[in-house]
Amino acid sequence: MSGGTYLVAAGCTINDITGKISGLCTAKGSIHISINYPALVPFFVLGGGALVVLLLSAVLPKRPYRGLWAGLTVAAGVGTVVDGLVQWQQLNGSSVTPVTLGDQLFYDHMGAFFAVLFGVATVAGAAISDGYLEREGLDGPEPYVLMLSCSLGAVLMADAAGFVTLFLGLEILSISLYAMSAYHRWRAASGEAGLKYLILGSLASAIFIYGAALIYGATGSLQYLGVVSFLADNALFQNGVLLGGMVLVIVGLGFKVAAVPFHFWSPDVYQGAPTPFVGYMAAVAKAAGFAGLLRVLMLALPTLESTWRPIIWVLATLSVVFGSILALVQVDLKRMLAYSSISQAGYVLIGLQAGTAQGVRAVAFYLFTYTFMVIGTFAIVGVLQGRGEARNDLSAVRGLASRSPWLAGAMLVLMLGQAGIPLTSGFLGKWVVIEAVLGQGQYELALIGMLGAAVAAFFYLRVALIMFLAPESPGAPAGGAVTLSATGGPGAATAGGGPSDGGPESSEPGDSGWAAGAGRAYSGSDLQAIVTAGLSARDRALALRPPPHTRVRVPAATAAVIAVCVVFTVFAGVSTPVLSWAHAIALPWSA
Amino acid sequence: MSVPGPWYLGLAAFLFGIGATGLLVRRNILVMYMCIELMLNAVNLTFVTFSRMLNDLGGQDAVFFVLVVAAAEVVVGLGIIVAIYRRRAGATADDVNSLKG
């Protein structure tokens, strides 16, 4: 800047030529940290929301009125979404410097995009938690405070301009999630999930920050832009400290996004943690982890592209392949969805490893659409499982098409979306991912992605088919029934055996069911054999248990979230505004 | 005569390795927790050493953040551990096994 007076911070100006400091900060030599306050609004909204909930919970009577905490959380989430959109508009065509707060934060389109994403996840997560916590007798302000601080950490990760800020965001997010996972007081599995997540998550954090320390040692900077400018001037391709640091950072963030082989915590945590929190966590932790990876790899270490791309390639391939295959043999719905989300993370990694603007666009679009699909799915699982999370296995959805057609329809759309069927956002997401790697000429990776999607389609469609089975097996005789003494729980029931026990229950030909009109439930044993393919005999019986007899009760807020998720999954699959939005944040890399 | 920087880096790497190994082989959850603290402090030593070698204050700043985060992690971690052991007798990771995987 040549000449003239410019503003350093609020109320403080410096004349460039004379060096004269005027305004509030006249003390010479005082530290001037320039702060761009509009960039900080999401933090004020989320952090302020958490503090307001905490304060009100201290001064109000024990149970003021229902939905107050959830309502405040939804309001903070809406505020974040609105602010993200405002930021997006203001950043258009303006020449604002991308870093603020002493170069610790980026203020750019990507940050605004992820602020909107995390705001949406907060709104949806709080809305579906309300009914769940009420049903489980757990309602209180704590989970909402944790949820808001978790979102704050996520926004911090997406905005971070250096490794220390990224670490801070990662830990704010993770520590909130540990407590949320362990929140269900009456379920032993919840505490266990929290403990496992805590131990393995802390290990991942330690590995991450050790990697950051090594990168600092090799480049002399903890800021992404400092690292990249150092690497531009100094060729350090074979520097062991730098490469080791990069690998450790990838491992640490790979834990957070649950990429194979760093995924082993995720099935246990998904199974044990309270269901709506799992939906929130699957969306937010994954998106925040990928936002961090995106910034680190594409902004700080683009010069090492030839080294990190093969690493991400391996992680992506393993995640898609193992996630899809292991999901095939799961009988627990939440566990199955955990492996499913591992395989979805694999697709995001495929987009990331392209290392191009197209890849960034694919990552952003995939994460945004996946947020809606996964929260909607866990919202439905949450209402189906019944009080005390009694029924988490596949049989919880059995006969849903006749018990609750609307819910079954919503689940069907979300399952088809995650399977990547055309006219859903999941299809478009996989499309842009494959397009990105084809742009790099990586046909083998595109092939792996498509084959993985074909395998994954099976376990999503299995859920869909079980919903259309008849609620009861017709005339299941005692001889053909399997007693599930091994499961021991109160829910252990008898089930019309699958084909393994060869019972004579197939009174009607299996394939006649296929011809039946819409609305009529199918019941053939051939169909049962198809939908339970790949499960062990015990799991098969478990999956074919009759559904619970209680009516499915869907709280209004949860129903609204499910409806929005379903509509968005179709909307983003048949139109392009989200795609062009994702395209805009990839512009810095398209030069 | 001062100890050269790389020695500190080697010591930090060694401590980090002890922490990681301990986390994987020890069964007592509190000991596992101490191992995580050991790993974070090894990171701190690395930061300080690099900071000294590079003559740059950034690394020493980072140490404060790591310390604060480690303390916060312990608070939440102990809270979860206490919540679990209200329901159980001992404090070994082998008892926490109702989720297979």
Description:
The complex is a heterodimer of chains A (591) and B (101). Chain A has 591 residues and is mostly helical. Helices cover 65% and strands 4% of the residues of chain A. Chain A has a 3-stranded antiparallel beta sheet, with no helix packed on it. A two-stranded antiparallel sheet of chain A has the order 4-5. A two-stranded antiparallel ribbon of chain A has the order 6-7. Chain A is globular and about 70 Å long. By secondary structure, chain B is mainly alpha-helical. Chain B has a domain at 29-87. Helices cover 74% and strands 0% of the residues of chain B. Chain B is built from 3 helices and no strands. Chain B has helices at residues 5-25, 29-54, 58-85. In chain B, helix 1 (5-25) runs antiparallel to helix 2 and helix 2 (29-54) runs antiparallel to helix 3. The radius of gyration of chain B is 17 Å and the shape is elongated. The relative contact order of chain B is 0.13. The mean pLDDT of chain B is 88. Chains A and B meet through helix 5, helix 6 and helix 9 of A and helix 1, helix 2 and helix 3 of B.
How many helix segments of chain A?
Answer: 22
Largest interface: A-B, 40 and 43 residues
Low-confidence stretches of chain A: 475-522
Q: What is the N-to-C succession of helices and strands of chain B?
A: HHH
Number of strand elements of chain B: 0
What sort of overall outline of chain A do the alpha carbons produce when their principal axes are compared? globular
The N- and C-terminal alpha carbons of chain A lie at a distance of 25 Å
Range of strand content of chain B: under 5%
Shape of chain B: elongated
Task: Specify Rg of chain A, calculated over alpha carbons.
Answer: 25 Å
Class computed from helices, strands and strand pairing of chain B? mainly alpha
Number of domains of chain A: 2
Strand order of the largest sheet of chain A: 1-2-3
> What is the percent of helical residues of chain B?
over 70%
Q: Report on the biggest sheet of chain B.
A: none
Task: Tally the beta strands of chain A.
Answer: 7
Mean pLDDT of chain B: 88
Q: What is the oligomer described by this structure?
A: heterodimer
Q: What distance separates the N and C termini of chain B? A: 53 Å
What percentage of residues of chain A falls in helices of 4 or more residues?
Answer: 55-70%
